[in-house]
Specification:
Shape: elongated
Helix content: 55-70%
CATH superfamily of the domain at 49-115: Tetratricopeptide repeat domain
CATH class of the domain at 49-115: Mainly Alpha
Strand content: under 5%
Order of helices and strands: HHHHHHHHHHHHHH
Largest sheet: none
Structural class: mainly alpha
Low-confidence stretches: 1-33
Mean pLDDT: 83
Number of strands: 0
Radius of gyration: 27 Å
Distance between the termini: 87 Å
CATH architecture of the domain at 49-115: Alpha Horseshoe
Number of helices: 14
Length: about 280
């Protein structure tokens, strides 16, 4: 019923826009097409069964009916064994049903169908990340990057995995590469067929400080201040490092960054009555 209502609204908007366009054309003296031409322009090419199946599965996913969506994706995967997209979407449905083993099997099936399917490798990495096997996660992220070295999200995911292995230099390098490719990569959630890594990092305070440092080196004071504030909130003990670490030089004078540092790592108070040296 909800789909029918949406379809009716879309149709009404479409017809209204068509009527308005016709009125504007007449008022401007533009000749309208003949009736046969209008009928031809408005004819709709019937959708194929495959298109209808894909549309139905997408609607089920949007309505959080993951079992129904998975049933369609599984059938499409059997009918189209060389198309990696269908087992990939089935894997995403299994994640939504908290079935990580089932998701892993479907992602493995997706890269078997197409050994150059980068999203499948990335999503496999995400499964291993969720299972806290960060070494295997990094291995899959590296495979994804071998196929698509220009994908910021893959570098971001690998940065999280390196961080949880306590490989901080490698984590910073990956996070900075992600930011250089897409400065807004950490401001978004998943899109398309790619699953974002579970961001359950092992040390939230250190991670947020690491993110602040990464943004500082890019000269992004606003994001640096945001992550510094989060690091302080999460109890990071070495906030004073932001006052001396050269990585923060480009943003340290920013009012946003100064405001956080004044709260998290205030400078020692100066005693106005203290005598200067040699007095």
């Amino acid at each position: 019923m909800r789909v029918s209502v949406v379809a009716a609204v879309v149709l009404a908007v479409f017809l209204t826009s068509q009527f308005a366009s016709a009125q504007q054309a007449q008022e401007a003296g533009v000749p309208l097409p003949s009736q046969p031409q209008v009928a031809l322009q408005q004819s709709v090419v019937p959708k194929t069964k495959l298109e209808l199946d894909e549309e139905a599965a997408a609607i089920f996913m949007a309505e959080k009916k993951y079992v129904e969506a998975d049933r369609i994706y599984q059938r499409l995967a059997r009918e189209n064994p060389h198309n990696p997209a269908y087992p990939n979407f089935s894997g995403i449905a299994h994640i939504q049903m908290s079935d990580l083993d089932g998701a892993r099997r479907m992602f493995e099936r997706s890269v078997k169908a197409d050994k150059k399917f980068s999203e499948g490798y990335h999503n496999l990495g995400t499964i291993w990340f969720s299972m806290k096997d960060y070494k295997k996660a990094i291995r899959e992220y590296q495979k994804a990057l071998a196929m698509r070295p220009d994908t910021a999200q893959y570098y971001a995911s690998m940065g999280y995995a390196y961080f949880n292995r306590n490989k901080i230099p490698e984590a910073i390098q990956s996070l900075q590469k992600a930011l250089s490719l897409d400065p807004g990569v950490f401001d978004r959630s998943g899109r398309g067929g790619t699953v974002l890594s579970d961001r359950s990092v092992t040390d939230h305070g250190l991670f947020n400080f690491t993110m602040a440092k990464s943004y500082a080196q890019l000269g992004d004071a606003a994001h640096c201040a945001f992550y510094l504030r989060n690091a302080f909130r999460d109890g990071y003990k070495d906030m004073v490092k932001a006052r001396t670490d050269p990585a923060f030089d480009r943003v340290r004078a920013s009012p946003d960054v100064q405001m956080v540092l004044d709260q998290a790592a205030p400078l020692p108070a100066v005693d106005a009555n203290a005598k200067s040296p040699g007095a």
